Amino acid sequence: MSQTVNVKLNVNGAAAEIELEPRETLLDVVRERLGLTGAHAGCEQGSCGACTVLVDGELTRSCLIFAVQCEDKAITTIEHFGSPGALHPMMEAFRRHHGLQCGFCTPAMVLTAIAFLEESPHPTESEVRSALAGNLCRCTGYAGIVDAVLDVAGVAE
Amino acid sequence: MIGERTERREDARLTSGRGRYLADHDVPGLAHVAILRSTSAHAVIRGIDVSGATALPGVIAVVTQADLDRAGARPMTHRLPLLGVLPLEWGLLARDRARFVGEPIAAVVAATRSIAEDAMELIVIDEEQLPAVVDPFVALAPGAPLLYSEWGTNEFFRMTSLPPVLGDVLATAPYVKQFRLTDHRIAALPLEGHGVQAAPDPATGTLHVYASNQQPHQLRTVIAETCGLDEQSVRVVAPDMGGGFGNKQHFTREECLTAMLALITGRPVRWIQDRTEGLISSIHSREQVHDVTVGYDDSGKVLAYRVDVTANVGNPILYFSGIGPAIVTVGALEGGYDFGVVGFDLRCVATNTCPIGAYRGFGQPQAHFSSERTLDAIAVDLGLDPIDVRRRNLLPDGPRPWITGGGARIDVGPLGPHLDALVTEFGYGRWRDLQSEARADGRLVGIGVSALVQGTAPTQYGVAGRFGSYESAAVAVLPDGRVTVAVGTKSQGQGHETTLAQVAADVFGVGVDRVTVTDGDTAQLPYGMGTWGSRTAVMAGGAVLRAATQLREKMDRIAAGMQTASAEPPTFSEIAEEAWWQTHRLPADEEPGLQQTVVYTPGNTMPVPDEHGHMNFDETFAAHMTAVAVEVDPETGDVRVLDAVLVSDCGVVINPMVVEGQHQGGFAQGLGAVLFEEVRYDDDGQPLTSTLVDYTIPEAPDVPRLRVVQRETPSAVAGGFRGVGEASIIATPAVIAGAVADALAPLGVEITSTRLHAHYLRRAIRAAGYTPDASAFASR
Q: Domain check: are A94 and A62 in the same one?
């Protein structure tokens, strides 16, 4: 178990070379090795979506992929998109529409919404709901989240 | 300011991934805990061989209950103050017997979580399997396996209140109905599971604990007790929490165990519950069976109401254990109705299942489900409109407080106008027309209504034997005119950093952005009561209001004596500077500084009987009226909500956006409870729902938008607030059940259970003789 390998990643635009155990997930690595704790371990079974990051631009459950599978790939986490003093428009919209309560699902939800609008800039409400179906929220009932995404898309509710 | 739709201050960090939840507090030398849990529902533990685990490189300690005994850990107890509760103590780990799948047996502390889990697999348990019992009625039958042989029964607690006149009224009532209603088992499932991190500080001799817990001060008390420490040598901080919903209200073995592991190993340790642990072993909720007997007259007025409650409490090893919600159920049977004579016979039954405990609503959803199903049954029986039947049974407009037979002091405003508002806003008449048209087309559309009066801001004394009804707040105005507020409550997502800032800002007349609210840290206040029971606006809001008002008055006195260069009155910051720095100029009898700590209670609760035998558990009450329209697909059993309206009266609203959010979220949870979620066991006590693939909660496409209408009847407590956090989760299961029952009435299907999941409804629809039209199905 102590056997380690070196993996080269590009994380949020910066190169990172990390010595790790092959069994470490991408979620383990971004959280524990890189301190990027905006990705959350909600189930570690691929069901809740709270650990979502982008791998080469693709929405990816970081709990279901080993870091060694991400050699030379570009990893983008929520921290790349904004910070408390410089929120991304999607983060602003979540705040404006009360699209979060506890916030545990929120970074992944925001990330998913940003990626979705890049693919589908003018969605219907139904399309927004389908796009977010893989990200579980226990607090909000989703109404504020859907409103936020539609608002950023410039679609009237 | 109070009443404004202020955006939340916490959202900047939470949306950008900078929230700091339990697992986001790494410290140097942090070790990780994995807990070995029973895979048997009932077994005698003969021995535990930890040698293989101990030898694994990276393992720091492997701990069993015997090790905890040696280290001075003390047992936990349920601490229930009620007469007749059977005695029960338990270790932080199972000592010689496991009584449910998931019960903790041993703990590993290791350099990483992976090593801890590797080591866990090397522990060998020598156990003898015993027969398990899962169903409470089986558990009560003669010859059932006993969880605690020393009890001689599995009936952990029984409480009856059957007024002698109850039988007489039932015997003479024009109509009497009897039926059985079932509430199935669910789990609260905060998206962030439980977690604890504990670190001993050798310099000060204190133990610093982070815990994802709704009641940090009480957890401090319980950790101190179980670890043999003084209360002042434990500091508990609840950081950002990824939800709680009551699931993080109890004080668990794991929280105390992790504290003991820090003391035993002398290093910082962290335990993070994984999802399967959460689903099988943290806390389940709701499972009850109600045998209802109701007597009523021609008008639909209830004359007598008896509910015999059988509550499955699992293995009741929970501080203020699973009987707490059941006690609230039998205290809330009438809700906002006058049912004449009310009685109950409550049995709380131990089984080889996960402990039952708190989930948002805490016993009230079951009471409300029964009262609403009962009124709907009366309406059907007499051919009356369910709205009219509710009007006939709602509490009259006066007097207030309305004092129930048991002593509850209900202080809601007139209920009729709320029901009128519901009828109007929902478009009740229009929906009945649409329903007729749909039925003519062979579609199954139904309408459900619910009238809820809910006790809010309860005392915990009744179910915990201590922890009275109050809240603490410390408010200060700093020399630069910034305001700090510390409270003994703990937001799990409710937005208290914003709403309590609004309360202080309102008093001081400053912007909300000048107020900083902190909560959940035992170092900030001597004691606090945490957040649960729809209490924070009432209790912490009231405490902040009191403290800020006292400071505001002091500032006015200081300002009156201040000399300013111009004719302008001194600014807020100038007064603050004067109070802290120019103390020689203050009025002679004025203490320097601007800080005020208040321990506040509205003073309305009576957790022990007065001379009339009356008890009142709630500081104030709230009123909520709900209506939904649904359509049921007879072929799939799928329920689609077509419209949903909630008329909300939670007194003075601090932030309408937050109130609406509470309602939307509670609605989603209530809908999930009846349409998607169920904790299931097989007959041997093996859990069948241990992942989010088996235990399914609503996704974005599943939850329709709830239309919320806010009305305000101020309460008499400070600020005029009433609690709001639980209303829609209490109302929703009942109102959806009512609508489904109405939809399926033409098929002769009766709804007597909260199980409205598609597969159950489909089965019931087929059992009622409905045969799907295969050609129609094929042409879809």
A: no
